[in-house]
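## retry 2 of 3
previous attempt timed out at serialization; input unchanged, resubmitting
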Amino acid sequence: MKKISIEYLLYYLQIVFIGMFLMILLAYNLNLSAQNFLSREMFSENVKGINISNSGSDFENSDKLDLSLITSDNDFMLYKYISGDYDEIIRGIYGTADVFGFSNYISEGRFFNSDDYKNKTHTAVIGSNMLSKTIKENGKYYFGYSQELFEVIGIFKQTDNNLDNCVYLNLTYILEKDSFSGLYYADALNEDTVSLVLSAVQNSIPQNSEYYFVDYESINEYGLDSMGNTLYIFSVLAALIHLLLTTIFFITRSEYTISVEKLCGMTKKSIFIKYGCYSLILICVSFITIVLGVNLFTNFQNGFFPTEQLACGHFVILGLALLTIGFLITLLTVLLSQKVNISATLKGR
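## retry succeeded, writing output
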């Protein structure tokens, strides 16, 4: 029994070390992706644009860009470029969902939702540096644009990046007041969705209009380069292979114990239950240790490890992965028990 306890202790340490290594590595990758998104002026690598101009001499109120006609099977964001100064980035925004998690950057209030777009509310979400350019009345902030005051419904947290100087205005309201002409950017989680959205925008353009497609060019990039991505992938594979080899060694070391247990009359079912309970306890303790360890890094290492990027979903995936490992350990142990030659094992062969 003492031997089994030592083996489980060693395996526990292996799981905890590798689990925390993978979670911290994931946090670094997520942090770089977030910085890359912010440095690209809150655009993904899939963004594409279309520049629309009204060829008529006068703009007529009947000429509108109907956003309800722009549909896609996948969620997307559509932006109208208004101002792009370094210290003030103003855009109209419309989205079928919060595709890129803008809500995660909100420190006060909220981000736009479907009701805001549907009801065409004159609302805004602003960066932390833009708060000084607002007017406060009756406990609410208002941002002035085009001789109108937009109620600020959300304020982004300080990021020391482009988001701090950004102002998002409800695009459905903007299009009710301003000309449809201008530069628009479509963005989504994949290029096919962006292409479909731009095609829908093209088909929704009023008559007597001209347009051409444009590409977005980022000045700064913070993401991993090809070598960095390769090292990241190989680090993950090395950790998983190491865990696999440790698992095989762990199960093989149980061969003698299984032989004795079979000799004492344990059935396949009883072996499965016994080692299944051991594995479940091992996995649960390992998972709790990893979570506590990551939280410890988050609270006491002053940002050296960007573990605050990790969300509950990442820990859920980790838990499911560990449970899968525990199930495989139990299954392989039972299969091993069926192949063990009791006589040869006890004789040391």
